[in-house]
Every structure is written in structure tokens, then in C-alpha cells.
Amino acid sequence: MRGKNFFDNLARKVGGKTPSTTVGRRAQRALLAERSIREVLELAVRVGETMLALGASATDVTDAIRRTTKAFGVDCQIDLTFTSILVVHDGVNDGAGISLLRVVNSRLPDYDRLTRVMELSREIAADPNDIDVAETIDDPAKLEEALNQLESFHQRLDEILVAPQRFRRSMVTLWLALMAGGVGFLLGGGPLVCLLSAATTVVVDLVLQALGRWGLPAFFLQIAGAAIATGVAVGLLAALPVLPVEFAALPPALVVASGLVVLLAGMSFVGAADDAINGFPITAMGRLLEVVLLTLGLIVGIAIVLDVARGLGIDLRLVERSVQPWPSAVQVIGAAIAAAAWALASYATMRTALVVMIFGGIAYLGYDVLVTAGTEPLVATAVPALIIGILGEGLSRKLHIPATITTVCGTVPLLPGLAIYQGMLDITSSDTSDDGVLRLVQAGSIGIGIAGGVTLGRFLARQFRTRRRRRTATPEAMVMSKRQFRGTASAGPETRALYMIPDEVAVGLETGMLRIVSVDEVVDAGQADVGAAAPPAPPHPNVALKRGDLNARGE
Predict the structure, then answer these.
(1) Sign of the torsion formed by the C-alpha atoms of 510, 511, 514 and 517
(2) Residue 368 CB: number of other CB atoms within 10 A?
């Protein structure tokens, strides 16, 4: 031991120190830039992944990712598909690019979390204390401050994701039962129809939960759900001769239709059309393929039960409405209940459910007025969907409710559950299937009308909001965006003093995708002679306009 300690001490005494001249080390600027950019992209991708999994459209997800990266001065390219998100930064100064990929494994609507995540993305974009990544390259202190900001946003996102869901799963089953009862009133059914529809939906949901725990694919879950709902209707047809009720008081078709609307509500008709129209064809095809498969699952489930019933000799009859349907006011209330119940079943807040209730009532009221006037079903559903799209997008900022929630839930009363059952019943019970095929085509056209109307309404509302913002913005507020301000602020004092940047720019005003911030600290008064005339400002890529370049209308 003594010999070993002797040689250890000798080695320390004769050993050299760290070289004063470093060789082959990585450039500090590249290290700092890559670290800060990667952290920004990580936050943006997490926000986008969460929104896509919770039911947001591709347009909303892309906008949220771009808002988050631009808040820190990072340009990126975004590739979004139905199951994955790829965000790429090309790199600066011949540096290597940075890319992050996230795969979305599950998509379950949770509108409470979705609302909170979208609010967080807007807060990130509106935070005046965000640090531009360009400022962190040569300043480790700025880098540390930026990383602390990003970490705080990560923690807030973590809090949203790990928070308990708003309702227990058993409460979701009750909300779905309430939705089925509301659809029963909507279709003109009486109290017995509503109670039986609610009870059937409870059974369907409990069975689907059990099958889902086995890992059964959604296609077979849809078959099972439709088969149970249709089986209840067939059982009613077989038992009606011995029941103390008339056929018209308990039409089985309405029971099946109520259950089908509950199963149809989870499909992304609106999302598929929105993605296709807004330039996301791959995502739209993925959503559309999912919708087609799930709808085929319903049709297969109905067909299997009806074919078995026909083989057993059960008389399959169809009554579209009750003998004494409810007044339109009662049906509007049923539509409002169905829309609000679906929002609650998707974990929305009570406040959101109240707003959705109003939207659902408006949608069905418009449908009823158009049908009474003799309008075709396609137009009678597309026009109310257009109105819901305009209202949902136009009021989303004021109500702090994403338009995705109000449009998807508000159009639930327009879903063609009864038309699908009627079509399958005609195909199964008739010698010719022409009428049934036409009914199924009509149901598909109604779904397309709903999706197209909502998408067009949202587009019109966004265009109107953009034009109104441009008209009402002050000339000073239109001079400089957040990104343009940062580019000038990172220049030298002489450059900053040379450009005429107004100090009246409003804080937090949004113009398109970029936010206006205060630029009081940009012009360094100590670097310029107040009495001297400022030289003419040359064109600069970071400054859009100078004071005096805008007239009173901001043009």
C-alpha cells in the first residue's frame, strides 16, 4: 500500500495540467444554439402532439406549433400526418439542422385539457418576456434565462397532462345515456323511447368498455355497438304483441337511431373535411379512412342482426316518426341536451357545455325551419352547419372555447343516425336494395354537408376577423412585429439608433401569426444626438415600415 501511495503521489507531482490551447473542441456558439433551439422545438412538438391526441384539427395544431417557435424567434418547417408530427429547423450559419419527431399513439377527445393546452400556447406567444434564441448564442446568462422560461412552460404543460380528468368513467356513461335520451326527443320519440334509448346506450357503453380492455380494434367495437342497439330493436318487434303498448308509441327504429347517433358522434367527419380543405391531404385521408371504417362497422353490425331477425321470421317494420311527434320547441330542447351531453362525455367543462347547448339548439332550429320550407336534407344540414362554423370560430377568442369543440358538439343533432338505419333496413327487408342504397348515399351526403358547412363557416369567420383586425389596428401597431423587433434589437447600437422605430407600439396586439410588443428599449437615446437630424433610414429586412409611411387608416 505504501508503495502504491508513493507512486500515486509521484504521478500527481510530475503530471501535467489541462492544455491551455484546446484542440478539436466543439464551438461554443454551435453548442449554445443547438441546445436552445432543440428546447424550443421540444416544447412546440409536445404542445402539438397533445393537441392532436386530444381532438384538435391539423390547422389548429400547426398554428400552435408555429406560434410557439416564433415566440422564441425560431423558424421551422412542420410536417403533420394523422399519427405523427415532424418539426425541422434548417440550422443557421451553415450549422446542422435539428429535427424532432413525435408519434401520436392514441386519440381520445378530452376537451377540458384541449382548451387548457390551446390557452397555454397562446400565453407562450403573448408573453412579452420571451427570449429570442439569437440572443442566447453569445450570452450564457441569456441562455440560462431562456432555458428557465422553457422549463416553466414544460412544467405547466405537465400539470395539464397529469391532472385528473374532470369526470369519472361512470359519469361519462351517464352523459352518453342522457345524450341518447335527448336524441330520442329530437327524433320525436316519447318518454318510453327516451328511457329505452338511454338504457340501451348504457349497455352498449359498458360492453364496449369491456371489449376495449381486451384491446379489440375500434372497427369491431362499432360492430358490437350497432349489433346491440339493433338487437334491442328486433327484440322490441318480437315482443310488441305481448307488451301493453302500441307500436307507434315505441317505434324500435328511433331506439336504434338514438344509439347510432351516440356511436357516430365520435367520428371525425368535421376534422377530415377541415384538414382536406386547409391543405393537409395525408391527415385528411387518414381521418376519412377511419370514418369510413367505423361507419362500415355500424353498417355490418346492423346488417348481421337484421339478417338474423329476417331468418327467424320477425316482421321488420319501420316507423319514421311517432304518430304524435313533439312540437318543434321540444325537439330543439332535445337537440340542445344531446349536444351538451356529448360535450360533457368528452370531458368539457359545464360552462362549455352550456355554450354547446345553445349551439346545438340553433343548429336543429335551422334544420327544422329549412325542412319545413321544403329544402333538401343536404342543404337543410349544410346551412345550419355553416352558421355553427361561423359562430364557433368567431366567438372562440371571446368565449375562450376552441372552435373545434363548439363545432363538433354543436352539429351532433344533425348526424344521420336514422337515415343509416333506414337504409340498412330497406336493404335487408326488401327484395330490391335500391331504396336502401339511396338512403345510405343520402346519409353520406348529410355527413359531407355538415363537415363542409362547418369548415366553410370557420374559414369565413377567420377571414372576417383578420380583415377587422387590419382595419382597427393603429398605424403604429402595424409597423413592427415581434420577430422584426427582435431582429433590430439584436443589432448594434448604431443600427438601432439609425432606424426610426415608434415607441407607441401596443403590447399584446396580434397581427396575423405575429404578436406586437413594446419596443421602448430598442432605440438607445444615449447613442444618438437628440438635436441632430436623423439620417435617412436605409432599407432593413427587420423593419417593415418607418413612422410616417402609414396614413391615418394604416395603409
Answers:
(1) negative
(2) 19
Q: Say how far apart CA 499 and CA 429 lie, in whole Å.
A: 80
Is residue 408 a part of any domain in this protein?
yes
Same domain, 92 and 173: no
279 and 425 inside one domain:
yes
Phi and psi angles of residue 29, each rounded to the nearest 5 degrees, phi first: -60, -45
Distance CA 87, CA 80 (A): 9
List, as own/partner pairs, every contact residues 148-157 make where C-beta atoms lie below 8 angstroms and the sequence separation is at least 24, other chains included: 150/39, 150/40, 150/42, 150/43, 150/72, 153/43, 153/120, 153/124, 154/42, 154/43, 154/46, 156/120, 157/43, 157/46, 157/47, 157/50, 157/117, 157/120
pTM of the model: 0.73
**Cα torsion through 418, 423, 429, 432, rounded to 10:** 160
CB within 8 A of 208, min separation 6: which ones? Answer: 221, 224, 225
524 within some domain: no
CB 91 within 8 Å of CB 76: no
> Read out DSSP for 419-446?
HHHHHHHHHHHSS--HHHHHHHHHHHHH
Rounded CA separation 240/287 (Å): 41
The answer to whether the CB of 112 falls within 8 A of the CB of 349 is: yes
In a domain, 10, yes or no: no
Residues 150, 236, single domain; the answer is no
- Taking the C-alpha atoms of residue 394 and residue 482, their distance in angstroms, rounded to an integer, is 25
Q: How many Cβ atoms from other residues are within 10 Å of residue 166's Cβ?
A: 17
Residues 539/545/549/555 CA torsion (nearest 10 deg): 130
CA angle 496, 498, 501 (to 5 degrees): 65
Same domain, 335 and 189: yes
Report d(CA 498, CA 9) in Å as an integer. Answer: 63
Cβ burial, residue 469 (10 Å; 0-12/13-18/19+): middle
* Cα distances (angstroms) measured from residue 29 to each of 95, 133, 445, 486: 10, 12, 58, 19
366 and 451 inside one domain = yes
Q: Is the pLDDT of residue 495 over 50?
A: no
The answer to whether 353 and 344 are in contact (CB under 8 A) is: yes
Q: Are 410 and 284 members of one domain? A: yes
Residue with more model confidence, 202 or 503: 202
Question: Rounded to the nearest 10 degrees, what angle do helices 169-186 and 191-213 cross at?
Answer: 140
**Mind listing the pLDDT tens digit for each residue in 101-155?**
888 887 788 899 999 999 999 888 887 665 666 666 666 777 777 788 888 899 9
